[in-house]
Write a structure and sequence with these properties.
472 residues; alpha+beta; Beta-lactamase; 7-stranded mixed beta sheet; 40% helix; globular; disordered N terminus
């Protein structure tokens, strides 16, 4: 074969050899580019995740610090018990918590972040936010409370047969946890008398326990008292200067109390929501909610908002010349008639009680509060709430489908299918409940730790209580 004839074969061989060398090189280069892209995306994801996680840090560490401090210094519970139960979820369970019993503070740390909560006698715990100087000023500032006279508990024992009939239910609820959840306290009033009272491990009749959103119902009562005193008109537009420039000028106290303000709000406790940011990041919680823009026409759309209650509490505070006079009014006009001794309505750093969430009183205190509403706003012969206030409270908000009144939940929509339709209730996060049932002359209080994953079967519990009483 001639050379000329061999050249095509040679060139073919060279081409094959070249491709054999080039393709892997291009493959390696392409793989490197893909690897670089993947690494860049991974780095971006890690950086983005860290940035987002950093925004969650005030919530993660703040929740742990605030709730542990209140449980230890207000409720008198053990740190280990609180961490094993109340704080044993999500990122919260990974916090490292230091309780300082001398300074009465808790510092909670997670990764690179920390939060501090401090207890003040008579006020409870506040999560410290803002500048260092603001923290020091808050801790050193004293708002003198009126002397607590140690009000006598006026609740009397109920019918002995009814007490005996409900004892097995109390044991099943608290001791055996047969209704699910981890209940701490259980009190039942029938015809004004105590017919059931039972407490869990480490909890006594004197233990003050967290209201969570049952505090909203106490805010309702405070508004009612101020209406009775001629200080408020719940149907008039609120006198908030920042709202006068836009559609928020039409928002009334009634709109806020019925959860129909129209203000933008996200109440999801599972993420970086408005409620979490408000409770765990803000110095002035009411102001934070007050700044929200209008999303719906006031009075037209129902959705749950803890921010609404803190706007109301901030507004009520503005009717007084000082924090001292406001707090004295709450104690003297709301708590004293109910024989609630040394309550802790915990304030934010602005000094305003967190009406949406942070009240600590005893199970019997919650029961007497429910009884006041059962008795149309009276304690014995003394009228505390204005005439017609309870009727207003249980009037359904227009867009709530019969499920909500004014800072009270209603059973007009049969959400509790075995409870009477006239049942209404104070309900708080993780299963804090006061049920008021006028047709049965009944008040039922259940407090404890009952998250959605292990929630007390309140419908079954109420059904069994009523059934037992009817059987006598």
């Amino acid at each position: 074969m001639r050379v000329a004839e061999r050249l095509p074969s040679f060139f073919c061989a060279c081409q094959i050899l070249l491709f054999a060398l080039i393709i892997p090189i291009f493959g390696i280069m392409k793989a490197k580019r893909i690897l670089r892209v993947v690494l860049a995306l991974l780095a971006a994801a890690i950086i983005g995740g860290c940035i987002y996680l950093n925004t969650l840090m005030p919530i993660i560490t703040g929740y742990a610090a605030k709730n542990l401090a209140s449980a230890v210094f207000v409720s008198g519970r053990q740190q280990a018990d609180v961490e094993a139960l109340d704080l044993n979820f999500s990122f919260i369970k990974y916090t490292r918590n230091k309780v300082d019993f001398e300074k009465k503070t808790v510092i909670s740390r997670f990764l690179w972040a920390s939060s501090k909560a401090a207890y003040r006698e008579g006020y409870g715990v506040t999560l410290l936010r803002g500048r260092h100087k603001a923290k020091k000023a808050f801790l050193s500032e004293e708002y003198p409370l009126p002397a607590d006279p140690g009000y006598a508990d006026y609740l009397a024992a109920g019918d002995s047969a009814e007490i005996a009939a409900l004892e097995p239910i109390a044991a099943e609820l608290i001791d055996n946890q047969s209704y699910k959840g981890t209940p701490f306290a259980f009190v039942v009033l029938h015809k004004g008398g105590v017919v059931a009272e039972h407490y869990g491990h480490g909890i006594t009749a004197g233990t003050q326990l967290l209201s969570w959103s049952m505090g909203k119902s106490f805010t309702n009562a405070l508004v009612g008292i101020m209406v009775k005193d001629g200080m408020l008109d719940i149907n008039a537009p609120m006198d908030i200067p920042e709202w006068k420039r836009d559609g928020r000028r039409d928002i009334t106290l009634n709109n806020l109390m019925q959860m129909q303000s129209g203000l933008e709000w996200n109440e999801n406790y599972g993420n970086r929501s408005d409620v979490n940011l408000m409770l765990h990041r803000e110095v002035d919680m009411g102001l934070y909610a007050q700044k929200k823009p209008l999303e719906y026409e006031p009075g037209s759309h129902w959705y749950y908002s803890s921010g609404s209650t803190n706007i109301v509490m901030r507004y009520l505070r503005g009717k007084f010349s000082s924090d001292e006079s406001f707090l004295a009014y709450i104690r003297e006009r709301l708590f004293a008639p109910l024989a609630i001794s040394n309550p802790h309505f915990e304030p934010d750093m602005s000094g305003t009680p967190v009406g949406s969430s942070y009240l600590y009183v005893t199970a019997r205190d919650y029961a007497r509060f429910g009884q006041m509403f059962l008795e149309d706003g009276c304690v014995g012969e003394k009228r505390i709430l204005p005439e017609g206030w309870v009727d207003y409270t249980v009037t359904p908000a227009s867009d709530s489908n019969g499920g909500y009144g004014a800072y009270f939940w209603l059973n007009r929509n049969a959400s509790l299918k075995d409870a009477p339709a006239d049942t209404y209730s104070c309900q708080g996060h993780d299963g804090q409940e006061i049920y008021i049932i006028p047709s049965e002359d009944l008040v039922v209080v259940i407090l404890g730790y009952s998250p959605r994953s292990n929630r007390v079967d309140f419908n079954a519990l109420l059904k069994d209580i009523i059934s037992q009483l009817h059987s006598l």
